[in-house]
Inverse folding.
């Protein structure tokens, strides 16, 4: 008998890493040979005549001679048209106008692409490909509820050689995002990129495999923009993390969820579990709206928390905001607190005694949401912090219970001074070290305050931002069985409409799990949890000690990795240094540290489809004058952790497949790096 040696643990890890890498690589959408079938495209494909010459108005008044615009920007940034002109869907007759625009006929090539913007409404707003002989709609793509144009790439090889035409369809009568924008229809190899090593990421709903077609590992890998080690829903919208908890050895992550569209809407709670708070397994939806039959009725289950009820059978209990859309239900209380319990972590039963809090306290505004329950060591009772307002400033109401059902109002835990918003949501309150921490959302920013607590009132001693980047909101805290204070934040925010992933049917992701700690200055710090080391899909590239000047250093090329650097600022003579991420010939994210003012600057001005801007944070150095940065790159997202606990989170949305280089350059001298390590990372779903 031939005996096969049992593999050693290191061999198993290597084989697993190789298999994960193979799955991820194999799952990226593959397009047919663009040279196989190339035919001329439609007339006036980019509207560079300044008119709709070559196109025909089939019906309605939404499109016409005034549809073509040469405007370069709108209230939230550039349109990103190619050349000078494009079709701006509301320019002819306004938002509510309807109609259809048709291109000239052409033979389908193997591939085609175009730019689309405007409203998200797959049924009523789209750019479509129609076969001439029978009028069949072969493919279609809606917008993103943003004016900016995004490149869609289609595999049209199955219709190669057949006569087709493009339609720009608008049957929406909405006065909000009731239009569609289009530009730059391309066919053949020209459809795949801008030349000079700039290949478009393959985007579009038509490129997304059916949800039932494969396991989550390969299914989630098939999307050029989808983060691989951050929680997302395959289709639909998520925002606030909710119900974070550890129960029976598993971490539980719930999220605000709209399964019907990649837009905010009637709120469900999605549900996932993990043994390590890194690798996730999707579970059935935990909470659903009372009546989901009318999508315009936004009544649903808003954010809340989860606790383990050891006194009543070790059940997992969800405590949440029951929101009622009073436009559809006049006279109803808009926001109340309800509960649901589960014995198996799968099915959650609503309590017959709901609501357990029937509305805000007397005299308080109607804004009353996002209950966060915690065990209060000052009196060994359950307490609930809930977002509120006094009409001028945000505030947090405090409730008390002994059984998680009957709640009494303690009073106002804390009221702000108005500078952090006139209403607060998603409050969290917990002890950390010798302080108490309160954090909340206000003015579309996440704020923390540290201070003292006497059992009923919080006194603030220090305030700051939870995250110094553009894309973090509604962070939620929980404590695991080992006593770690953990948190996850929504990687998004309300000021920006930039969700290019909507063209693929989804929007919203959650951060990696973070561990919270008190910084030396009394502020709140964050660090990535140690279990994220398990994501390594191969050996780290270790560049060792390097002195980097203006000639620069090429670190690597990747879209899913962890970059860890340590800098000896005592030996650094450079005025600053820049780490470039998601870099190609045409775009990059810049992370610059300036030595004189100890400032870290995140610059997304030229970073793809995402929100353009710069964000800064002052970073405290170690006693040895060292700076460490722990950077997570994940296809379209970025998380930067500095050694002092500063964190910056951003969504990036690169346009090109080549936008994956990582480089470092010093300015006005050399930067002394003690170590530079780049580790490839795999998927949370594999």
């Amino acid at each position: 008998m031939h005996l096969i040696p049992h593999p050693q643990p290191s061999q198993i890890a290597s084989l697993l890493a190789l298999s994960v890498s193979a799955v991820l690589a194999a799952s990226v959408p593959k397009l047919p040979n663009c040279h196989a079938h190339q035919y001329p495209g439609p007339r006036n494909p980019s509207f560079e005549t300044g008119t709709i010459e070559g196109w025909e108005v089939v019906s309605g008044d939404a499109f016409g001679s005034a549809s073509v615009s040469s405007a370069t920007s709108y209230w939230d940034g550039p349109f990103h048209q190619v050349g000078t002109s494009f079709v701006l869907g509301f320019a002819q007759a306004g938002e509510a106008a309807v109609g259809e625009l048709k291109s000239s006929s052409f033979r389908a090539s193997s591939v085609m692409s175009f730019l689309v913007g405007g409203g998200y409404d797959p049924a009523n707003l789209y750019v479509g490909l129609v076969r001439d002989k029978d009028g069949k709609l072969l493919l279609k793509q809606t917008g993103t509820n943003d004016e900016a144009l995004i490149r869609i790439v289609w595999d049209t090889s199955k219709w190669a050689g057949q006569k087709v035409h493009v339609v720009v369809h608008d049957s929406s009568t909405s006065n909000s995002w009731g239009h569609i924008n289009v530009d730059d229809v391309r066919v053949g190899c020209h459809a795949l990129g801008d030349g000079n090593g700039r290949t478009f990421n393959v985007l579009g709903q038509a490129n997304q495999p059916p949800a039932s077609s494969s396991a989550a590992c390969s299914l989630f890998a098939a999307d050029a923009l989808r983060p691989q080690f951050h929680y997302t829903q395959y289709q639909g919208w998520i925002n606030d993390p909710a119900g974070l908890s550890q129960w029976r050895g598993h971490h539980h992550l719930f999220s605000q969820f709209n399964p019907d569209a990649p837009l905010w809407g009637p709120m469900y709670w999605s549900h996932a579990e993990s043994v390590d708070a890194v690798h996730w397994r999707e579970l059935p939806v935990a909470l659903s709206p009372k009546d989901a039959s009318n999508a315009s009725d936004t009544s649903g289950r808003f954010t809340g928390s989860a606790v383990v009820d050891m006194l009543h059978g070790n059940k997992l209990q969800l405590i949440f905001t029951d929101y009622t859309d009073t436009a559809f239900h006049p006279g109803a209380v808009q926001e109340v607190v309800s509960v649901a319990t589960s014995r198996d972590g799968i099915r959650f039963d609503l309590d017959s005694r709901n609501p357990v809090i029937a509305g805000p306290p007397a005299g308080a505004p109607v804004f009353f949401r996002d209950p966060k329950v915690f065990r209060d060591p000052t009196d060994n009772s359950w307490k609930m912090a809930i977002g509120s307002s006094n009409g001028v400033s945000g505030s947090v109401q405090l409730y008390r219970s002994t059984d998680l059902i009957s709640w009494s109002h303690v009073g106002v835990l804390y009221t702000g001074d108005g500078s952090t918003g006139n209403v607060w949501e998603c409050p969290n309150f917990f002890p950390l070290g010798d302080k108490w921490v309160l954090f909340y959302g206000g003015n579309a920013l996440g704020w923390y305050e540290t201070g003292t607590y006497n059992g009923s009132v919080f006194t603030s001693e220090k305030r700051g931002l939870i995250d110094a980047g553009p894309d973090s909101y509604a962070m939620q805290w929980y404590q695991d069985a080992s006593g770690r204070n953990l948190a996850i934040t929504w990687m998004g925010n309300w000021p920006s409409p930039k969700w290019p992933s909507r063209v693929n049917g989804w929007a919203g992701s959650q951060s990696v799990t973070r561990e919270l700690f008190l910084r030396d200055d009394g502020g709140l710090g964050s660090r990535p949890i140690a279990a994220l080391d398990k994501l390594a899909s191969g050996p780290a590239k270790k560049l060792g000690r390097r002195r980097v000047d203006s000639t620069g250093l090429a670190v690597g090329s990747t879209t899913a990795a962890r970059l860890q650097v340590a800098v000896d600022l005592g030996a650094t003579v450079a005025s600053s240094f820049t780490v470039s991420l998601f870099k190609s010939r045409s775009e990059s994210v810049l992370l610059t540290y300036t030595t004189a003012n100890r400032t870290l600057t995140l610059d997304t001005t030229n970073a793809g489809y995402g929100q353009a801007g710069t964000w800064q944070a002052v970073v405290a150095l170690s006693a040895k004058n060292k700076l460490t940065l722990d950077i997570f790159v994940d296809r379209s997202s970025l998380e930067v952790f500095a050694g002092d606990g500063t964190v910056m989170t951003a969504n990036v949305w690169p346009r090109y497949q080549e936008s994956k280089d990582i480089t470092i350059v010093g300015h006005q001298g050399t930067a002394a790096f003690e170590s530079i390590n780049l580790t490839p990372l795999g998927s949370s779903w594999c």
Q: What stands out?
A: Residues 501 and 507 are 6 Å apart (CA to CA). Residues 223-344+351-530 form a domain with the Tachylectin-2; Chain A fold (CATH 2.115.10.20). Residues 1-26 have pLDDT under 50 and may be disordered. The two ends are 34 Å apart (CA to CA).
